[in-house]
Amino acid sequence: MAARIAINGYGRIGRCILRALYEEGKRGAVQIVAINDLGDTHTNAHLTRYDTAHGRFGAEVAMDGDDMLVDGDRIRVLAERDPAQLPWAELGVDVV
User: Fold this and answer.
1) Element (H, E) at 19
2) The domain containing residue 38 runs over which residues?
3) pTM for the complete prediction?
4) Is 96 domain-assigned?
5) Three-state DSSP state, 3
């Protein structure tokens, strides 16, 4: 069973974690179920697709409402300032 993780903060490091999991073929061991970042979903999807240091991301990235789809995997995108309000238990998150 895959570990269900959430990324709290989707700056350089958060994006690199997502990218590394997909590029290294770790999708079976780890599933990203949520990203919490104050940026909007459209901007986060764009920054995931195109990286000035690492180049274009090889996975397909799309948006569906407030969710981001990466190679068909649905990732819930949240924009919550207060960590106590994040629905980690509701989403079944194992690791943040």
Assistant:
1) helix 12-23
2) 3-85
3) 0.92
4) no
5) strand
In terms of Cα–Cα distance, which of 10, 23, 21, 6 is closest to 58? 23
d(CA 25, CA 57): 14
Largest CA distance in the chain: 35
Task: Report yes or no on 54 lying in a domain.
Answer: yes
For the residues of 24-74, what is the DSSP string, one character each? TT-TTTEEEEEEE-SS-HHHHHHHHHEETTTEE-SS-EEEETTEEEETTEE
Asked whether residue 91 is assigned to any structural domain, the reply reads no
Name the domain count of the chain: 1
What CATH number is given to the structural domain containing 44?
Answer: 3.40.50.720
Per-residue pLDDT 10s for the chain (96 aa) are 899 999 999 999 999 999 999 999 888 899 999 999 999 889 999 999 998 888 899 999 999 998 999 999 999 999 999 999 999 999 999 999
Question: Residue 93: inside a domain, yes or no?
Answer: no
